[in-house]
Amino acid sequence: MSEIQKHIRCKPGDVAKYVLVPGDPGRVKRIAEQMDEAHLIAENREYVVYTGTTNGVPVSVCSSGIGGPAASIAIEELVKVGAQVFIRVGSAGGRQDDIPIGTPVIITAAHRGEGTSKVYLPVEFPAVADLDVTNALVAAAGEAGEDYRVGIGFTRDAYYVQDKQLNELLKSVGVVAAEQEASLLFIVGSVKRVRVGAIVSTDSNIWLPAQPTLEEKEKLFRVGEKKAIAIALRAVQLLAARGI
Questions:
Q1: What total of structural domains would you count in the chain?
Q2: Backbone φ, ψ for residue 160 (5° rounding)
Q3: How confident is the model at residue 2 (pLDDT cuts 50, 70, 90)?
Q4: What's 40-53 look like in SS3?
Q5: Owning domain of residue 87
Q6: Helices (H), 20-179
Q7: Cα separations (Å) of 121 from 40, 69, 186, 216, 240?
Q8: What CATH number has the domain bearing residue 231?
Q9: Contact assessment for residue 61 and residue 50, using Cβ atoms and an 8 Å cutoff
Q10: With a threshold of 0.85, does the pTM exceed it?
């Protein structure tokens, strides 16, 4: 199939086997800056696509916008043009009171609090990250010597709505981060039989006793974001070395 995809504006050959998937189009450019080389492939709506290399391994990056519907379009169309391994590189709210803002968090599975994934598979089906991709992220974070966390995330739709009872329940069982795309990406990955993992940097935390200012949060997040990007790129290198 050589037709250019409707939303991401890419065709086969434009994207690599490995694709990093941030939500924010601005983060695409920051990821590209940490690659060995990268060039713009397409830019349409919330979808910005670059392709380049990391330590000689071809890799692409495509933004997915905010939330499940936009992310589902990105991964569906990326699979159609040949992508096989995905790593979400995003932002999230920390959901344990000992997770500082700017902490890289590797999400192993996610509570399906969003609606889009339910169109793909029934709610009883688990949203789980690919084990090989997750292990590569953990290995890359360990090599970097960074303070990072690993655990289950909470994917939700309504950014400005907080369900206090649910938040407390999920905190009590160890959920580490809340964001808006991971469970959808994991589910579509299962349906399409492609590998999907996720790493995020925390940009907030509702459980901190003292809340930083927005400016302080953004400064801390940018430090964590740079770490998460480096970990994701190193994970791509490790996966390629293993032939995954």
A1: 1
A2: -95, 5
A3: low
A4: EEEEECCEEEEEEE
A5: 18-241
A6: 25-34, 68-80, 117-120, 131-144, 164-172
A7: 34, 14, 11, 40, 30
A8: 3.40.50.1580
A9: yes
A10: yes
* Distance from the first to the final alpha carbon of the chain: 24
Contact 207, 171 (CB under 8 A): yes
- Tokens for 159? 């950014």
With 0-12 / 13-18 / 19 or more C-beta atoms within 10 angstroms meaning exposed / middle / buried, residue 216 is exposed
Q: What is the spatial distance between Cα 65 and Cα 69, in angstroms, rounded to a whole number?
A: 9
Nearest to 177 by CA among 108, 94, 118: 94
Give tens-digit pLDDT for 52-89: 999 999 999 999 999 999 999 999 999 999 999 999 99
Kindly state whether residue 125 falls inside one of the protein's structural domains: yes
